Please model this.
Amino acid sequence: MKFPRAMSRLPVSWAVIAIVFLSTFPAGAHDPITTKSALSNSKKERLIVTPLNLAFGRVPVGRRHVQTVTLTNWGDSAVRLLQVVTQGGDFAVVGLDLPVTLGRGESYTFSGAFAPRSRGASRGSVAFVSDASSISNPALRMELTGEGSADDGQLIINPATMNFGTVQVGLSASEAGTLSAGASQITVSFAWSSSAEFTLSGLSFPLTIPAGGNQGFTVTFTPQASGTASATLSFMDGNGLTLARELLNGTGIVSQNHTVGLSWIASTSQNVVGYNIYRGNQSGGPYAKINSSLDSNTAYTDTSVADGNTYYYVTTAVNSDNEESVYSNQAQATIP
Model:
């Protein structure tokens, strides 16, 4: 069965096909593969932006924080994005080269940036204007919020929230983070996780980060039981005061009888070093990355699926400059 190709518009340009199948399913069950998308039956434009609201949190004045945004066309026909209208002088759109034509089911990934020029709360918005809309009546609007703070030695943690998605009990998933110092050096004396299911590695305490410096770390989620898990990872100074907090979320599941196998055509772009695999619970996303590290193969087996659920998969290619392509076409698998 052939799937449609989705062409990238970012530096890593490639076409990918994802083939989804159940490696095991009960006798008499039918192959759940389908190429149908959950699209509107109307002919109207249907643009979806993920996330719909960008909350940048506290960012020191003079510095910039960037978050990834994905725009997807789930309408019945192609949409030509002509213009974006940004309100709020501290906010900007990065990496969106207009005009952009999105075919049915295609996505485009770019960034929203917040660079506060003064202290205090800031609000803004981005309106997306296409050939089916106008500036006075845009197809879609994304709300932006952030707060400018004093760069007085503040410890900045990025990302502010780690979401590990679904992980099978007995296995682990890891995510990378970064600690950054502001205008003066910061000493972190220790870190504390509120749950044993989330562990920190890659740091040795006490840790001193020079002014303007960065230090990477890794958090690993190892669920001990099925169900949703959450925790707070706190970085403390020598007096026991909290310098920064990381919010941690994940879901543990018990091993099932089914797996989902994914395969795709290798990217033809230059210097591709691997692929990322993303999964969502609804068509069009949002998606969460399910591979713990860059996958150099063109196949992946998802063992963390639950009976009775439907999953939606996309993949991306990553080159040697750590540039990531837009999502491939979406593939769907329904677990009996």
User: Anything to note?
Assistant: The longest strand covers residues 242-253. The CA atoms of residues 200 and 219 lie 5 Å apart.
